[in-house]
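Quick review question:
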């Protein structure tokens, strides 16, 4: 057992790649035991935070993210639409709340928001907050001034992912740099907004790349409050869809390593549940995942039907996480 066993479970920001690679290499039972121990230190392991996603501006994106059905340059069948009306967004948010979500996440297929569009998004955030829901948006790159405007509107979380390791990144995106992403995360953090930042597994990367991605996340100081681990949703027409399908155990290992290295963060079993077995999802919850996207659509691709998720929660004895303890 080469991976170090931490003396206590206080969050650390000095994780080395070798330490993280050693966690990935642990026997599966030992890895899960450590993840469960870390999970219990900061959370009730039977509680799961529930977020619902809405694409408020779909398709036609100028970026070239190899995984993304919304990039204009890939032929994926996703049609470009304009920014939704505020009223329609708030109707969806009310439905999400009635269905049991505690956070409403709004995504836009932009490289970065225009100031006029940001005005409308600020009104949406205010409306979502007024319903008693937590708010999250993901709009691409942000300046410090734009982050400040979102904070003033009451935004709780900004999602901006590192997506993969610094080395593998150039195989996935060429239209913005890793440093651009880190700069946006610094702007969000500087404005006092909670950071939601994770990545994608299953894009043909090696285990070393997965360790590199977790190292990039776990050396952020402070850690992101929310860490979405997405299993690639393979969409025909996107370059990443040519990668070999992801092994479910490898995905669970990534969740477990995220849990151990960022013990006080909420780790989201994010995209990819539609093609995952319920048993694999249960292993993710054992490995420390404690958030999901709930609702039958992610941004443009399907997510499990809500009644199936409710039945799964009942089978596993899981309960929604109350808002006050979600993220810390
Ligand atoms: N356009 C903004 C940006 O990229 O910063 C916000 C929306 S973008 C769709 C948000 C995140 O969704 C991406 O960073 C990526 O991690 C995730 N994502 C997109 N397509 C995905 C796919 N096919 N499978 C898994 N995750 C995906
Ligand atoms: C995140 O990490 N995953 C979500 C959310 N943040 C915005 C997006 C998943 C998108 C999956 C592909 C789609 O539905 O278009
Ligand atoms: Fe555009 Fe975001 Fe998709 Fe990249 S992930 S193509 S930036 S919508």
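Suggested answer, residue by residue:
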């Amino acid at each position: 057992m080469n991976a170090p066993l931490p003396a206590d479970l206080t969050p650390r920001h000095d994780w080395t790649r070798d330490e993280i690679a050693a966690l990935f290499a642990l026997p599966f039972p030992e890895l899960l035991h450590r993840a469960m121990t870390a999970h219990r230190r900061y959370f009730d392991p039977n509680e799961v935070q529930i977020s619902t996603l809405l694409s408020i501006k779909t398709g036609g994106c100028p970026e070239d993210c190899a995984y993304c059905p919304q990039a204009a340059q890939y032929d994926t069948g996703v049609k470009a639409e304009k920014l939704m009306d505020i009223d329609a967004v708030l109707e969806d948010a009310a439905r999400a709340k009635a269905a049991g979500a505690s956070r409403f996440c709004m995504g836009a297929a932009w490289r970065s928001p225009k100031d006029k569009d940001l005005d409308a998004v600020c009104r949406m955030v205010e409306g979502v907050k007024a319903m008693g829901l937590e708010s999250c948006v993901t709009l691409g790159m942000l300046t410090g001034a734009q982050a400040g405007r979102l904070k003033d509107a009451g935004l709780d979380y900004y999602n901006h992912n590192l997506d993969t390791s610094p080395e593998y990144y150039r195989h996935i995106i060429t239209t913005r740099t890793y440093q651009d992403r880190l700069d946006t995360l610094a702007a969000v953090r500087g404005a006092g907004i909670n950071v939601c930042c994770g990545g994608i597994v299953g894009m043909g990367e090696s285990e070393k790349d997965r360790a590199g991605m977790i190292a990039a996340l776990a050396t952020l100081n402070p850690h992101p409050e929310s860490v979405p681990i997405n299993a690639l949703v393979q969409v025909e027409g996107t370059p990443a869809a040519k990668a070999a399908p992801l092994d479910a155990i490898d995905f669970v290992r990534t969740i477990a390593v995220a849990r151990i290295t960022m013990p006080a963060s909420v780790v989201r079993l994010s995209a990819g549940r539609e093609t995952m077995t319920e048993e694999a999802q249960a292993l993710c919850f054992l490995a420390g995942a404690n958030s999901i996207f709930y609702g039958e659509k992610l941004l443009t691709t399907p997510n499990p039907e809500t009644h199936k998720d409710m039945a799964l929660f009942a089978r596993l004895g899981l309960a929604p996480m109350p808002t006050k303890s979600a993220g810390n």
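Why it works: The pocket of iron/sulfur cluster (ligand 3) is lined by residues 61, 63, 65, 68, 70-71, 109, 111, 140 (CB under 6 Å). The two ends are 31 Å apart (CA to CA).
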